[in-house]
Amino acid sequence: LAFNPSHLEIIDAVVEGSVRALQDKRTNNGENEVMAILIHGDAAFAGQGVVMETLNMAETRAYTTGGTLHVVINNQIGFTTSNPFDARSTLYCTDVANMIQAPVFHVNGDDPEAVVFVTRLAIDYRMKFNRDVVIDLICYRRHGHNEADEPAVTQPAMYEFIRQQPTVRRLYAERLITADIVSAADERALEENYQAALNRDDIVSRPLIDDAEIYPKPSWMPFVGQEWTATYDSGLPLDTIQALADEFLSLPPGFTLHPRAAAIVESRKAMAAGEAPMDWGFAETLAYASLLKQGYPIRFSGQDVGRGTFFHRHATLHDQVTGEFWTPLEHLSQPAAPFRIYESLLSEEGVLGFEYGYASSAPGVMVIWEAQFGDFANNAQVVIDQFIASGESKWGRLCGLTMLLPHGYEGQGPEHSSARIERYLQLCAEQNIQVCIPSTPAQIFHLLRRQMLRPYRRPLIVMTPKSLLRHKLATSTLEELGQSGFRNIIGDTDAVDDQKITRVILCAGKVYYDVLDARRKQDLDHVAIIRVEQLYPFPDQEFAAQLARYPNVRELVWCQEEPENQGAWHQIKHRFTGHLVGGITLTYAGRPMCPAPAVGQFHRHLEQQKQVVHDALLG
Fold this sequence. Notes:
Distance between the termini: 57 Å
Strand order of the largest sheet: 8-5-9-10-12-11-16
Oligomer: single chain
């Protein structure tokens, strides 16, 4: 039984994801060992878009659960809307299920034996054909929408009829009496005994679960009560790195790559040999390979995830002659955990809900969802708000889902610039989620490994780069992968004189490289740069240690690409105010407030970006 928020039907995809996770744990015939049952309302089934998204997932490789039993409680009213011409554009509320040719059984809710028959028939169908099936349970709502609602105000004729209608129990009792199955006296005795039990506060329902089942399952126990500061070591020795690279850079005999993909594979071989700087795509793939070899299965889905929206990942390679595809991480030498990467259907809400459900039922699996652009993740804002950010607070439900959200201002306009960092930071409290902006390949390597190696399961929100995927400065060395872990704060990496520093620029993400390049060109030896790689939970002690390097600092400047009313500024500045001692000031350097995330003209983007960097260094 899944925890269900008041946002209608949003639980559908979450249940499907949990069911798929439980099925995948079973080695044989998992589809027929675990089944999803979804209970809908008639108005919501026809009206909520996530229903269509969930139905559309039913027969896909990534999201099928071998058929779902849908039960529509059709009380012929949605809040106060009872006119079918207002509630939908189809004859039946279940007509939306026609999109997957699911059979629909319409049954009278006042006929219990017919309901039982149809339910058995529907389950038999699902188990035989492993397809979705729908029961349209036609009934009525005897009372109002809630305790204070008086339904006759808006549906006077309907409720005049309902008041005259005998209850299901009364109708069925009379049917049994007429058939001489029970006597009227027996029926009265049953009712009186039931009422007496209620008056005695006796338990009259059959127990469905054991009390022990309310506690965390054994698979979750290692992660209960853990802190985000729990220790781990994500480094790898050089020989292990090279052995893994040899495996995932190998191709089947005769496999013909596209010339551009072939060039990437060859460049990665040079990276593995230490002959070329390491880029993001290589470090990311290496992190996955290492986790697989350590026994952690990986499930990865999203739009364009095989190739990568920005042509950087190439986790799936395509033969240019035969059209066959090859996923190297699926073919690592044994022992290795399974790697499953899926190009998702064109959905954010349904897919992210599914992946949350999967991750909340499989703590040992690394579950990743990547948005095509981070901007589009707000299509799934309900999932983020109701489950990812608050599921633990409301229901004690842990989840280790990883979200990769491409983010960065490169002049692509208001639809392709911002993953909305501010919205995630606004949701942060009680260490509920992790929000990180890694700026180097080594950082994403350690961050991904940390997510599984550390005995800690909270959603990880990662603002991933776009132009930095190939930036000449955004590279790492093999030696950095041998370090112990992800650096939440990165101090200045240039050889600055700590005593000369009077201005410290604080930043996160891509803007660091713009500021760094400008500082070098202008030879500003009084300016230091600190990168905040983990925005939440904020690493106070690590930040204080870096700031303490500069005893003569007088100015702290938070620099960001986003407009002032967006980005991290308003959610992070209170982290710095405690360090404003001895006359130190804190100022903002970034774009001015704006209703949209970014401007539309490229020349204006360049002007704004130049001004941001100027304000940070000299403003």
